[in-house]
Design goal:
The two termini are about 35 Å apart. The protein has two domains: about 200 residues, MFS general substrate transporter like domains (Growth Hormone, Chain: A, Up-down Bundle), CATH 1.20.1250; about 210 residues, Growth Hormone, Chain: A (Up-down Bundle), CATH 1.20.1250. Helix 1 runs antiparallel to helix 6, helix 10 packs across helix 11 and helix 11 packs antiparallel against helix 14. The relative contact order is 0.15. The protein is mostly helical. The chain is globular. Keywords: Cell membrane, Membrane, Transmembrane, Transmembrane helix, Transport. It is found in: Cell membrane. InterPro entries: MFS, MFS_dom, MFS_trans_sf, MFS_Transporters.
Length: about 425
Amino acid sequence: MEETKLGLKENAAQFWLLVLINGFVGAMVGLERSVIPELAESVFGISGHTALLSFIVAFGLAKSFANLMMGRLATRYTRKQLLLTGWLFALPVPWLLLYANSWGWVIFANLLLGLNQGLAWSATVVMKIDLVGERNRGLAMGINEFAGYLAVGLVAFLAGYIASATGEVTYAFLPGIGFSIAGLLLTIFFLRDTHGHVKVEAAQTSIPFLGSIWKDTTWRHANLGSVTLNGFVNNLNDGMLWGLLPVLLATRGYSLAEIGLLAGIYPVVWGLGQLVTGRLGDIYCKKQLLSLGMVLQGIAIALLLFAGSYAVLVTALVVLGAGTALVYPNFLSVVAENTHPNQRPQSLGIFRFWRDFGYVAGAVAAGLFSDLFGLEAVLLGTALLTVGAGILSEVRMCCTKKMLWQSKACVPGLCRAV
C-alpha cells in the first residue's frame, strides 16, 4: 500500500483537482452576481434594491447554516460524501432559475445555492488543508480562495454578456447546468477522500483538543475567537458595500458602465491578491497580517466618503481589495493551525458560519441604517467597526505560527517560536 504523505507537492494531482472543483463551486454563485437585479426588474417587476437585499439574506442564511452543518456532519461522514451532497444541492439551481415563474422560485434557488456553497466550498477547504499539512498551508488557502473568487468574477462577466447578447436574462443561467454536472462527476470519479491524511497529521500533531469547539471558536480561544470576530466584520462590511457602493457611486454622478467598472476593482484585487497574501502567512506572523488587513479595510471605507476625484476613488477600492486579500486566506490558516485535525472541520464550520452570517447582518444593516442615519453615517460606522476589530486582534492574538499551550487555551503571553 502506498504511504500517505502530507504536502502540496506530494499530493499535487489531488490538490489541483480540488482547485478545479472549487472553481466550479465559485462559478455557480458567479452566475447570479451580475444579473439578479435585472432578472428581478425585467421579469418580476421587483426593484433592484429589494431583490439584492432578499438575495443576500436568503443566500447568506443558507450558506451560514450549511457551513455549520458541514462541521458537525464531518464527524459522521467523509469529506467526499459532504462535497457530493453539496453538488446535489446545486443541480436544481440553474433549472429553477431558467423556469422560475415567481420570485419565490428565485429565493428557493438561492437557498439551495447557499447550501451548495456552504457544504462544497467548506469541503474543498478542509480537504486541501488535510492534503498539504502544516507546510505551505497559507499558500494552499490563497490558491483555493483565488480560484473560487476568480471563477465568481469570470462567470459573473460571462452571465452578463450572455444576458446582454441574447436579450434573455434567463439564458445567463444555462452554463450552470454544465458547471454543476462537471463538479459532480469530477468528485465522483476522480477525487479521493482525505481521511488517511487526517490520520497521519493527527498522529504527528501536538495541538490539544478544544474543550468546547463552539465556545472556543466563537470567542474564548485567543486566536480562534479573534479570527471569528474579524471574519464576521469583514463580511459585514462586504455585505454593506455590495448594496451601498453602487448607490454611493450613483450619487457622485458616475454612469452605470463606470459603476460596474469601479465596483469590480475591489473583488479583482481581493481575488488576485490572495495568491500572494496566503503565501505571506507561511512566512510572516499571521497576527500582523490580519490586523493590518482589517485596518486597511477600515481606512479604505472611510476614504470612500472623501473620494472627490476618480484617482482617489480607485485608490480606495484598491486598498480595500488589498486589505481583504490580506485577511481572507489567513483566516482559514489560523483556524487550521489552532485546531486538532479531528476537530478542524467543526471549528472551520463554526468560523465560516459566523463569517458568512456577516453578509446577512451587513445587508440588513445597509438597508435599515442607511434609511435612518444616511449613507455617509453607515459607511463611517462600518469603517470604525472594521478598524476596531483589527486593533482587537493585534492586542489579543498570539503572534507565532506555532504556539506553546497552557491547558486548552492559547495564552498570548506564553507564545514564542518553537
